[in-house]
């Protein structure tokens, strides 16, 4: 079983739980430290956090959120299967697969079945990544936690594929069959309700998807990998498109200039002569 992912811990526990943990630490410190130092942990924490915020606000320290960020407005070009530049934006189909799992057990993510299923997911994506040059797998989002419950233990991710057929072929691989059998035996079928599962598949035909990013590190479809040119070994990322004219509007990024021109006229009537700014 893989080790517990402590990165997700900060979002998984509720605010009341974290306050209780902080109070417990403060009480323990007060029991072992002299009275005059009782508030030292709180004071030190607030001082460090406040100093960090002040340095970022004054521009003396870069925001950690901008690490590896692409600092301009851009879209991505979905490369041809040989790795070459496509004719334009949104010219290829893409299949999207969302998978999520939630623990309905009081132990949350500490439930062994839950952690075992997450191990299977890691193995599945490792297998997809190892064979992405031939299986149509393009990449996936990082895991994220939903926050509709006090204990945010619903972990989801979206993967991207060159076609629905290739996604379906991946579903028939031995690794996926093994994970599916475990899921049905562990709580997806009639034998229990300890695991909640989200499974969604969407297919976007050419000209019916778009993406635009600004001041953020590569994420989602922006992290897709494609074959190298001329059959060379290795993989390469998507091509960034920065031309403002091509990035104009949702329909424009889908390659439909006529529809975008129609939308622009409607938007101009609403915004007036000042436009967006």
From TrEMBL:
InterPro entries: Dimeric_a/b-barrel, Monooxy_af470
Pfam family, one: Monooxy_af470-like
Keywords, in A-Z order: Membrane, Transmembrane, Transmembrane helix
Transmembrane parts of this sequence: 12-32, 38-58
Superkingdom classification of source: Eukaryota
Name assigned to this protein: Uncharacterized protein
Organism listed in the record: Coniochaeta ligniaria NRRL 30616
């Amino acid at each position: 079983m893989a080790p517990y992912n402590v990165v997700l811990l900060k979002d998984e526990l509720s605010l009341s739980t974290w306050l209780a943990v902080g109070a417990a630490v403060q009480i323990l410190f007060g029991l072992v430290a002299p009275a005059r130092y009782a508030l030292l942990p709180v004071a030190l924490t607030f001082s460090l956090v406040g100093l960090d915020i002040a340095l970022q606000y004054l521009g003396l320290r870069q925001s950690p959120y901008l690490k590896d960020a692409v600092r301009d407005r851009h879209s991505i070009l979905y490369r041809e299967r040989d790795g070459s530049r496509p004719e334009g934006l949104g010219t290829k189909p893409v299949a999207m697969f969302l998978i999520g799992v939630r623990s309905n057990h009081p132990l949350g993510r500490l439930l062994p079945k839950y952690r075992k299923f997450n191990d299977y997911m890691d193995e599945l994506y490792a297998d997809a990544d190892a064979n992405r040059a031939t299986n149509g797998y393009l990449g996936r989002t990082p895991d994220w936690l939903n926050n509709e419950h006090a204990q945010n233990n619903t972990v989801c991710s979206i993967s991207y594929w060159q076609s629905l057929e290739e996604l379906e072929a991946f579903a028939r691989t031995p690794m996926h069959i093994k994970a599916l059998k475990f899921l049905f035996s562990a709580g997806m079928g009639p034998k229990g309700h300890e695991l909640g599962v989200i499974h969604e598949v969407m297919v976007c035909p050419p000209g019916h998807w778009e993406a635009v990013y600004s001041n953020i590190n590569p994420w989602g479809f922006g992290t897709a990998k494609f074959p190298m040119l001329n059959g060379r070994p290795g993989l390469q990322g998507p091509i960034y498109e920065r031309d403002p004219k091509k990035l104009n509007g949702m329909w424009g990024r889908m390659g439909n200039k006529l529809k975008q021109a129609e939308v622009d006229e409607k938007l101009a009537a609403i915004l007036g002569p000042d436009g967006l700014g």
